[in-house]
Amino acid sequence: MTGVMAIFERRDDLLAAIAETNARRVRGATAFAPAFDERVLQAAGATTSPVASWTLAGGIAGASSALAFTVWTIRQWPTLIVSGKPLIAWPPLLIIAFELMILVAAAAAMIAFLAAARRARRGTRGAYDPSLSDARFGLLIPCGPARVAEIGEAMTTCGAVTWRVV
Amino acid sequence: MSDEPQAVRALPVPAAMRRVTRDVLATLEWRIPSWLAYWGAVGLCLFGWSIAALVWAYQIYTGLHITGLRHPVMWGAYITSFVFWIGIAHSGTLISAILFLLRAHWRTTLARAAETMTIVAVMTAGIFPILHLGRAWLFYWLVPYPNERGLWVNFASPLIWDATAVGTYFVVSVLFWFLALIPDFAVVRDHSRGWRRWIFERLALGWTGTAAEWRHFRTAYTLLAALIAVLVVSVHSIVSWDFAVAVVPGWHSTIFAPYFVVGAIFSGLAMLLTLMVPGRFLLEIKDYVTIDHLENVAKLLVAMSMLLTYSYGSEMFFAWYRGDPFERAQWMYRAGGSYAGLFWLTLVCNSVAPLAFLSRRARRNTTALFALSIVINVGMWTERFVIIVASLAHEYDAYSWGAYRPTAFEWTILVGSAAWFLFWFLLLIGHIPAVPMAETKERLLETAPLEGVPA
Questions:
Q1: Nearest Cα residue to B118 out of B163, B175, B161
Q2: Which of A8, A59, A132, B402 is least enclosed, having the fewest CB within 10 Å?
Q3: In sequence order, which residues have a C-beta less than 8 Å from that of residue B442 and are 6 or more positions away?
Q4: Do B219 and A49 touch (CB under 8 A)?
Q5: In this complex, do A30 and B206 lie within 8 Å of one another by their Cβ atoms?
């Protein structure tokens, strides 16, 4: 992929640059930030995440598999009734189900995050600048070789401290 | 109080963010005399828990008779310490997860230490049930697998609930802690060379900080915070049910779950002060963990102390009101029997001493904060000791009454567990960013005004 990687000192310049790329109908730009910032995420169109759905699925899977597993283990010895208590007593099993629900939901959230973040980084190889984790912002704009100079100039106008071709 | 750290309050945002990076990374570059103090403390702790490990080895060799455990008191200092350390783990979650969900931004700079404390406290707590087993190598019997008769573990047993809950709490706490560290690991990776870069490159898992990565990160972090917030309530409730489901006077009470949860948060907050009052000097983060942060913890301690006092009062009131002679006798025994000294010490430490924090002067005095945090920790250990031991020592029939006193071996292991806790805490917090950089920068961005940005 050919593109321009512009580095900004201030968040406001990055927001202006994102607006500029949108105005020029450049699609697929990737914004970089040193910290979570809702304004940058909104401007960059990063508004949804699959992590919540996977977490919900993990929670349901954890709770249902815990209930199924505990009931199945108890039914291995169906005659083992102690003190006339019901063989399958739901209150204690719900405790196990609750804990497993949390455990699997949390694991699903983490795995979904790692997978989604890995996918989000795809196509940015070689563009990353170490100053981006410190205090600077970045914008990676995919464009053909013919538009590199034009986009680069536009980024400088928006306040980019530097830009390079990637 | 302003939420921004004192060190960066007057700076423009880019300069403030750079300053945060520089200051926090500096905590990883140990300088003399901090280096000497740090490794001296780590070495001392290593020595402390090594002695305890030798005592444990001796206990395994000779048997549990070297402890004071005798009929009728078969749960003593080990189970007390298990409950105590699980309790310590709870304030990490309060500071990190619950206060995050409540948007209490002052928690930001304390969050890393609190989360690290949680993980290390659970690691410490997990040792005690294994110590208490005697035959420690059989701990895997708690794992649900069938024995040679095809019989599985009893899922209706509170001990299995405990193992499940504590195991879940440890795993989810580690995930939560590690997730928050990923962006900070990337900062260390980008500002280091050699072996450190090699390690942090792997720990950062390729983090680059794209907008989509931040979206996934925040969604996962918020969800984990919500999950861990309900988990923390369930874990100490389940620990309390180890006792409450048994028909033992002094244990069999419906108030136990909230009572234990409040006590856990109370003791955890006190431990956070114990660690951070000296720790902010040792780690050189006193511009980030300021007296304002410590004062807020002290305010929470007063609130928790009052809730705990209310729980004590309710327990005493219902022991009298419900008219059960055994319950009443148990309370009379606690207040005037073999463990009366510890009972009254508990009340002084947990209900009276924390009231000093009603005074602003006490809340802003680091010596008072540190001293009272120790007093509260002592009080919380004795509280659990009285609940567990006094109840077992004085059950229904006079012929089965007895007393328990921990032996020197048990005291050594208890002190060793504190050394184990401090050892891992120091080792971890000294090698990771001690203040959450990404979150501190987020706060700086959040409070910065926008300048002429097109809508």
A1: B175
A2: B402
A3: A35, A36, A37
A4: yes
A5: no
Amino acid letter at B108? T
* Substitution target from A83, A85, A99 for chain B, most B beta carbons within 10 A: A99
- CB proximity B146 to A under 8 Å: yes
Residue A46: phi and psi, rounded to 5, are -90, 80
**A58: which residues sit within 8 A by CB, 6+ positions away?**
A104, A105, A106, A107, A108, A109
Tokens representing B191?
């500002």
> Are A103 and B168 within 8 A, CB to CB?
yes
Determine the Cα–Cα distance for residues B112 and B439; give it in Å rounded to an integer. Answer: 10
> % helix / strand / coil in chain A, to the nearest 5?
55, 15, 30
- Residue A125: phi and psi, rounded to 5, are -55, 130
Q: Do B208 and A92 touch (CB under 8 A)?
A: no
Query: How far B36 CA lies from chain A's nearest CA (Å)?
Result: 29
DSSP-derived secondary structure letter, B390 = I
Q: With residue A140 as reference, give the H or E element that holds it.
A: strand A137-142
The parts of chain A modelled with pLDDT lower than 50 are: none
Distance CA B331, CA B343 (A): 10
Task: Give the closest-approach CA distance of B408 to chain A in angstroms.
Answer: 37
| ipTM of this predicted structure | 0.94
Structure tokens at B316: 């005493």
Cβ contacts of B350 within 8 Å, gap of 6 or more: B266, B305, B308, B309, B312, B376, B379, B380, B383
**Three-class SS of residue A3?**
strand
Cis peptide leading into B33, omega within 30 of 0?
Answer: yes
Contacts of B319 by beta carbon, 8 Å cutoff, 6+ apart: B327, B328, B330, B331
Determine the Cα–Cα distance for residues B65 and B76; give it in Å rounded to an integer: 13
User: Comparing C-alpha atoms, which of A166, A142, A132 is closest to residue A33?
Assistant: A132
Residue B452 predicted with pLDDT over 80: no
Compute the distance between CA of residue B149 and CA of residue B73 in angstroms, rounded to an integer.
32
Q: Which element (helix H / strand E) includes B79? A: helix B77-93
Token pair 């961005």 is found at B445
